[in-house]
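debug: dumping io for the single-chain case to check the tokenizer round-trip. Nothing else runs in this session.
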Amino acid sequence: MRIVVLGGAGKMGCISVQSLTKDPRVDEVVIADFNLEQAKVVAETIDSAKISIEKVDVTDHAGLVKTLTGADACLNATVYYTNLQIMEACLEAGVSYTDMGGLFHTTLKQLELSERFAEKGLSAVLGMGSAPGIPNIQSRYAADRLDTIEYIRIYDGIKPPAADDMRFTYAVPTILDEMTLEPMVYENGEFVGKEPLTGFEDYWFEEPLGLIPMHLSLHSEVATIPITFKDKGVKECFFKINYWGMAKETVEKVQVLQKFGFGSREPVDVKGQDVAPYDLMVAMMDNFVPDITAFLAEPTNVAPDWVKEIVTEVKGTKEGKTVVYRLGTLTVKGALPTGTAPALAAIWLADGRIEPGVYPPEQAFHPEDFFADLDKFGIPTQVTVKEML
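debug: decoded output
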């Protein structure tokens, strides 16, 4: 099978490329990226005969369609702003599609393309990074075993870096949006917007993470999970994270810049040139993302020093008894699930294992089979069940 990874030279896309090359089901992985120099670094670091490189500009529709034509699946690892236009190119090229998330609002717009994908016999799964993606499938596992559901609570815990670590953990524009846009939560059957960086609570993760302060963040899981399981009576759903895996001090510095107007997208005249403060801030902060090769380190290497557990807690009833499911997917050093989970989704799509149409992950994947695939990459999932007497 041939899989095109758009943004394959990026920080998460390169992990997808690496994961795909390791899977015997995949014959060719195309790194489709505008940055050819970085694409070559990724290819040389991974060193697989399966890799080919193509320069692509996602704003060039005709060129994008040409790159996608003949592929068995497209994995979109670019920033979420491009999701809709890339899905349009996939429709024209006749290629199934997956991405790493649409930050709630874009995901809802993407779901509207379901009928068009189905008419062409194509499939799409939205939001298949580590989160969104894994929590959706965790929630499905629990929902399949419950008669009713009271709440679905998602916690994305990442090992906190040192206070003086200024690095960003993934796409700068996405993190900035998550910092500033209202987190959406599901409360008493309704979607409600909250203030960014609110809803703090301390949550216990598996060792070596331990107790970590968590806060609300805008995310795609909340857009679909309450609707998918609405018939089971879901009353509450939220997503929480700990400063997006960054140092609290770094987030506070960005907040100061936001207060001074650097988050504005309105152009400002600077010595005769129109410059959007937001664009300047993104460009400057790109200097604080780790080198691409750090993301490709194997688990036996020193870097990247990532520990992450994605937890979904689901409370409900089974045969009249109150039951709480806790599903935790843990990764320690390397094998970052944000790149591996969408790689697996692309393989499932290329294999024709997903029905035609556009789906959130909880509707597309059989949980046990997907978690078994993840486990092969050193990303295990543990289930704990508490039954109230």
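debug: round-trip ok. Confidence is low (pLDDT under 50) at residues 299-303.
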